[in-house]
Amino acid sequence: MINDILQHFNITSSHSGVAIGGHWLTGQGETLQSWSPVDGQAIAAVQATGRKEYEQVIEKAQAAFLEWRQWPAPKRGDVVRQMGDALRTHKKALGRLVSYEMGKSLQEGFGEVQEMIDICDFAVGQSRQLYGLTMHSERPGHRMYEQYHPLGLVGIISAFNFPVAVWSWNAMLALVCGDVCIWKPSEKTPLTSIAVQKIMEPILKANAVPGGVLCLVNGGREVGEWLAQDTRVPLVSATGSTRMGKQLATVVGARLGKALLELGGNNAIIISEHANLDMALIGCVFGAVGTAGQRCTTTRRLIIHESVYDAFTQKLVKAYQQLRIGNPLDENQHVGPLIDKDAVQHYLHAIDAVKQQGGRFLVEGGVLEGAGYESGCYVKPCIAEAENHFAIVQHETFAPILYVMKYKTIEEAIALQNGVPQGLSSAIMTQNLRESELFLSAAGSDCGIANVNIGTSGAEIGGAFGGEKETGGGRESGSDAWKAYMRRQTNTLNYSTSLPLAQGIKFDL
User: Where does the Aldehyde dehydrogenase domain start and stop, copy by copy (predicted)?
Assistant: First the structure.
């Protein structure tokens, strides 16, 4: 199956990971070996970006920007429309590659490509709506307004858990805004980035898009550091851990560049005494075990009212006993593998920490062995009774470990929800209007995403995606997230025959 997919995208067993539009450079960096967590097999080698190729990419991107920024935004939008159509054509092949290289379920792989298609559709409409405002001037015969111009080069650093969708959230908006994009994907999932670049090549060529508008620079940490340090790259959008984000923000901030950060989440669902428990169960289980707990929006904490705690945890344990763990390309499976054996070790360390800090497991974890689990990356989703103040609960563990705890009042529940360093996604399950409104008020959730009667995981393209506190404060995708990729300019136009000064100042010569 995987050989058919590689042939579909014309990916060889040792392929360049550096591209300027449709032109592939010979990578002089380290060799990245792509391994599948599904079966532990080596898929292909990727020649990463060396410093020389990086400089070539930047130079071409700079030249391309000078032309691309002058294309009318609706014309840029039409190129993005064609990209969306191309993704529709290749959805099954790309979704399967995402599933096999990253390890998420096949349905989620297809869903990730659908997110790419959806953001293309959104960006096409946005290309005709890059609005500014008109303000009234205090001076007669003057018109004052603001407009938005493209920033220039946008560096996009994406993570392994969404190896293609998050790039598209950034790239499609940046493209219609008139920017050019330099993509540094995760070194754990290089092949999906190559496949996406291959999908885009014919569109770039058919529309005579300047070479350098879409660039790819596969590589390790050093390539990300080059982007962060590069004064020629005014915006770096990065998805990953809070630790990585703090380091990147420091470097980008030191040169007064812009950083758009989408970092860790420690997301909670409040289960009210007024909740529909059967409905809540679906959101909680999928939120906790989807993508094997490797989403930034994964549900990591359940804050359950004491009156329904026993009933709901019994439902939860029963549901976990029915989970099917195995090859994610088999659509009958619920849970696939973790990305690699390092992730497995972090999972095991977290389980030990829970026990050492006083937690008790309702569903035990562990690594699965035997037929079908040869990669060593398959683990059991587990549930632990824990306290919110435990050090391990305060930390984001990228694995299917769910912490459950009790509360008495809604105000206490909200305080527990907010009582972690991260602030990405949150939810409450309730049929009580007062509780839902309080949760969504200024006195409620402090997260960038707050939901009622749906889980923490899964976001629609139309809304801005991102969070507060150690999640980084960035916003991607919908709403007015496009403004992050542009620079605001205030303009005053004097059409009178005199030059009055503001605030009534007199300056006579």
Answer: 24-490
**Does 398 lie in the same domain as 307?**
yes
Q: Angle formed by the axes of helices 73-89 and 190-206, to 10°?
A: 130
Residue 252: CATH number of its domain: 3.40.605.10
Q: What is the pLDDT along the chain (509 residues), one digit of tens a residue?
A: 899 999 999 999 999 999 999 999 999 999 999 999 999 999 999 999 999 999 999 999 999 999 999 999 999 999 999 999 999 999 999 999 999 999 999 999 999 999 999 999 999 999 999 999 999 999 999 999 999 999 999 999 999 999 999 999 999 999 999 999 999 999 999 999 999 999 999 999 999 999 999 999 999 999 999 999 999 999 999 999 999 999 999 999 999 999 999 999 999 999 999 999 999 999 999 999 999 999 999 999 999 999 999 999 999 999 999 999 999 999 999 999 999 999 999 999 999 999 999 999 999 999 999 999 999 999 999 999 999 999 999 999 999 999 999 999 999 999 999 999 999 999 999 999 999 999 999 999 999 999 999 999 988 999 999 999 999 999 999 999 999 999 999 999 999 999 988 888 888 77
Residue 457 lies in a domain: no
Look up 115 and say whether it is catalytic. Answer: no
Helix (H) or strand (E) holding 87, with range, is: helix 73-89
**Beta strands 134-135; 476-477: pairing state:** unpaired
Report if residue 495 sits inside a domain. no
Question: Residue 86: which residues within 8 A CB-CB, separation 6 or more?
Answer: 199, 200, 202, 203
Q: What is the pTM of this model?
A: 0.97
We report the CATH number of the domain holding residue 372 as 3.40.309.10
Strands 235-239, 214-217: pairing kind: unpaired
Tell me if 443 is assigned to some domain: yes
Are residues 294 and 227 part of one domain? no
Q: What range does the domain containing 411 cover?
A: 267-452
CB 264 within 8 Å of CB 296: yes
Instruction: Kindly state whether residues 292 and 347 are assigned to the same domain.
Output: yes
Note whether 301 and 415 are within 8 A (CB). no
Residue 65 counted as domain residue:
yes
Query: How many structural domains does the chain have?
Result: 2
Write phi, then psi, for 382 (nearest 5 degrees): -135, 160
Q: Which two tokens stand for residue 263?
A: 């970092």
- Please list, in sequence order, all residues whose beta carbon lies within 8 angstroms of the beta carbon of residue 72, skipping any fewer than 6 positions away: none
Rounded-to-5 percentages of helix, strand, coil across the chain: 40, 20, 40
**Residue closest to 297 by CA, chosen among 246, 263, 335, 345:** 263
CB atoms within 10 A of CB 84: 20
Query: Which of 108, 187, 262, 396 is labelled catalytic?
Result: 262
Q: Looking at the structure, do residues 343 and 240 belong to the same domain, yes or no?
A: no
